[in-house]
Task: structure prediction
Amino acid sequence: MAQAGPAEPQAQAEGGPFTVPVTVRGYETDTQGHLNQAVYLQYAEHARWSLLQAAGIEQSALVASGVGPVVLEQTLRYRRELRAGDEVTVSCAFEWGERKIFGMRQLIVKADGAVAAELTGVGGIMDLGARRLVADPGGALRELATDPKILGLEQLE
Result:
């Protein structure tokens, strides 16, 4: 089973989605040889954390500032099977609004361009002390990011 080296995340030009490459590993498959359904969610989570890291937000900085990302809802649509050795890219884009929550859109795309899975979700940024969502999740991440544009947020002037 070939496995790619360290993933090299990329933010695409013109505001396209952030992507990270992943190689499906044999131990992630079920008895039919398909990628186990729970692993799709792990790939999506990996892409979200990679996006935060690419924006300059380390997990330790989130904890130190007393906030953390939370997933409130996820819908996953399986479109094509994945098998051990398949090379995929996992995209991640946040959709910011005026509320305490934000949208998440992710695709898992095979090397031939076929969409293997689509994930939509709702997230928030939790105040870890108060155990409540912060009023401005984009603002909370913007303050911590060295490159907020990767998150779809512009730098405050």
